[in-house]
Amino acid sequence: MRRVAVVGVGYSQFGELWERGFRDIVLEAGAEALADAELEGKEIEAMYVGNMSGGRYLGQEHIAALIADYSGLAEFGIPATRVEAADASGGLAVRQAYMAVASGLHEIVIAAGAEKVTDVGDPMEILSASVDMEWERFVGGNLPALYAIMARMHMESFGTTEEDLAMVSVKNHRNGVKNPKAQFRREIKVDDVLRSPYVAEPLKLLDCASISDGAAAVILASENVAREITDTPVYIEACTQASDYIALHSRKDVLTMKAVVKAAREAYKLARIEAKDVQVAEVHDSFTIAEILAYEDLGFSEKGKGAELIREGITEIDGDLPVNPSGGLKACGHAVGATGVRQIVELTLQLRGDAEKRQVDAEKGLALNIGGTGATAVVSILGR
Amino acid sequence: MRRVAVVGVGYSQFGELWERGFRDIVLEAGAEALADAELEGKEIEAMYVGNMSGGRYLGQEHIAALIADYSGLAEFGIPATRVEAADASGGLAVRQAYMAVASGLHEIVIAAGAEKVTDVGDPMEILSASVDMEWERFVGGNLPALYAIMARMHMESFGTTEEDLAMVSVKNHRNGVKNPKAQFRREIKVDDVLRSPYVAEPLKLLDCASISDGAAAVILASENVAREITDTPVYIEACTQASDYIALHSRKDVLTMKAVVKAAREAYKLARIEAKDVQVAEVHDSFTIAEILAYEDLGFSEKGKGAELIREGITEIDGDLPVNPSGGLKACGHAVGATGVRQIVELTLQLRGDAEKRQVDAEKGLALNIGGTGATAVVSILGR
Hints:
Two copies of one chain form a homodimer.
Chain A: E1 4-11, H1 22-37, E2 46-50, H2 54-57, H3 63-70, E3 80-84, H4 89-102, E4 108-115, H5 123-127, H6 143-158, H7 162-176, H8 190-195, E5 198-200, E6 203-204, E7 214-222, H9 223-229, E8 234-243, H10 258-271, E9 280-282, H11 288-297, H12 306-311, H13 328-332, H14 336-352, E10 364-371, E11 376-383
């Protein structure tokens, strides 16, 4: 397998984009990535698109062919493939593109992710299609309810508090203020979170990421080609994917996301680093408890001690291990299929030194993108 | 890139499977493929699942994780990836699995395809989401209407007749009688087709494949591993994918599926054969005109002369180039996401000599799987 570099990144504004269509936002992200890489488009040899529910939100499937067409790449007839694993769809798109280049099959490949949720449909219901519809959702176990079970168990087992969870949201909102493309750019306080209404106890409104519109794109190239294109390549040193039982009740340990543990272990091995070597991370904080679990399952802390990292300020943007300097899913908005790609955009900007007001000092970054309650996990390690 | 072999195949009954669920039929196909390969399951290193519209038919996304779970493979945490390109989703699953093995990343990978359409929803509307919803479907251009335009233009340009189209359906029904898993196992006559009601003139009911339930699975392995597993490996000598403008009105020539031409040309080159070397083919006869166009765009005939092959009996099961010995989409039933995988199952059985009453004599076979009206095409060439 060859080394693969990120040579261009782009993403649209995230938020409630009532006045813009699915095609518009994907093309904006793609065009920004092409401009960033100083490519015209015809150099792209293949395209992967992560999208969870175009069929239900837009009445449109065949998403990758649609995007290849509207971006002008259908003229060249390139393979265009949509991948889906709920809100890990974006991570999958990056991974397939990575594999296509690492294997030597292609030199330059684009991975995009997008979701447009504000037009039609019931986003909460549609996003809950990431869990087992017959055995979880049917009996009321939608996404917030299942994460609430995890949160409650974590509190009972390890003494994590609602204040700890709130602090995750407060941190990510504080970071989001510095991200011009984030949906929520205002600071909040722990009290704001605690006083927001319960969605599924103990999770409150401000513990939950919003389901948002947005698109992101990254252009990957083989090492040799990357050196010709850019002076600041950021390398993907590992990109791994693992699965777990889809239903929470089938897992031996509800508080360990086995897919995250497995994908992370493999990624560290491939990148020849350990958890302690990670200097910045973008993790999947669809709910605040998910960020605490990520700390533990990625090995940033022992199991049960995730909350200590937030209490001690370690994962603050000026801490030892900044997590979600972009604002994360919470402040950026969770544009489902786009999120996994947006994370790679953020890490690339951070490692290049292009993250402006939210810049951290790092040479190694990690991204964790999760599908549903953890049935799919994608872990990427980037380095400069 | 390494050589890749098909070492196990399986598929469910195709049809209106009211009494069975999505999970049931996928597991049946997968279990049959495992039994065929004499594997237990734990040897599988990755899974790709082709499915077009689980979100709309079942209210369920995250399809690949679901299948990994229900097939017992989540225990091993293998990467499970859903791919979608309308009715080319199955072909994409095979191609991703092929790439995963050919690249050296994995030794044994399963590709499955499935669709369950009879439970809920409006299959005609849901399948039409394969075309440009904003610029085609919105103004009435659903899938039969667009293929009707192609058929009418072919008749006007090249003298193809409604009888020619009918003969495609008659041939495929005749073959389907010999396929125990086909949905429609009865012979029909040209007159039956001509007297069936118009769906979109000149296409009649019996020119159109049904939208059906079904699942199929193939297990791929690297050449070395394949030799240990089976005495009758069938090699995938090429598996290529291309795209075209999604909307018919954007294409310079409506009667040439550019994606098919491109994918076929690349496949012939990789397999080091020419069109004339193909001895059996499974092509995408979602509508009878699609099979005529396939003859032309795959190079089995010159452009405009596709109908001659059906008139002269060349593509009959006992002709020089049997096409759709399985019964094709028309007689098997078009289980959207499953079709592209079912085609590989059929070619494998044919090349192994396991096709029983529908056996043809062939060493090289080709499969063509199309998404929508040709915005995606996947061409596979198999050999023994």
